[in-house]
Here is the input.
Amino acid sequence: QVQLVQSGAEVKKPGASVKVSCKASGYTFTSYGISWVRQAPGQGLEWMGWISAYNGNTNYAQKLQGRVTMTTDTSTSTAYMELRSLRSDDTAVYYCARAIAAADPGGDYWGQGTLVTVSS
Amino acid sequence: QSVLTQPPSASGTPGQRVTISCSGSSSNIGSNTVNWYQQLPGTAPKLLIYSNNQRPSGVPDRFSGSKSGTSASLAISGLQSEDEADYYCAAWDDSLNGGVFGGGTKLTVL
Here is the structure.
């Protein structure tokens, strides 16, 4: 069965970077993309971007351009999301999801989420 | 301020039918398909409806979606207590070249 398993919770100081992993199993990794979506405490969902696991093409949300990098490692079927220059308003649960297409705002299978807390 | 507009709350009694609306614009709902996600408390979102009105395998047919112009709706019939959750609509936005979500609707089963 399709599974996306994310790395554990992180606590970071303002200005630092965080890298969240998302290990996929149960399907051909390179046949789909990976979307990243975050959710601040008590807030709604926010699309962060998408990466093709086939060729590494990316598309990032305009507000995160320059601070976010999404990558994949096809040898381990793992996707990564790195966010730099962290601020307190980056505190959120970060989700990866299997994207059906490049223009998929979310996905059909989701990881369990990774809480990133930014605090001095 | 979310790009897609949803009512913040909705409610119904067991067995009732409830609908949740999602309003957008020509650059998102008006030109792309709509997905709906269900998020139970403390869990990850789950795909409920894709391509406006398609249900993934395993989603009960009590859930249905529709789209007209720049608006979409999620209908839940035969409401059950386990349907109490947050519901989000989502679509691709051609102007932003990115995904956009509604602010979410908290459904309470009375």
User: Anything to note?
Assistant: The beta strands of chain B are 9-12, 18-23, 34-39, 46-49, 63-68, 71-76, 85-93, 98-101, 105-109. The mean pLDDT of chain B is 97.
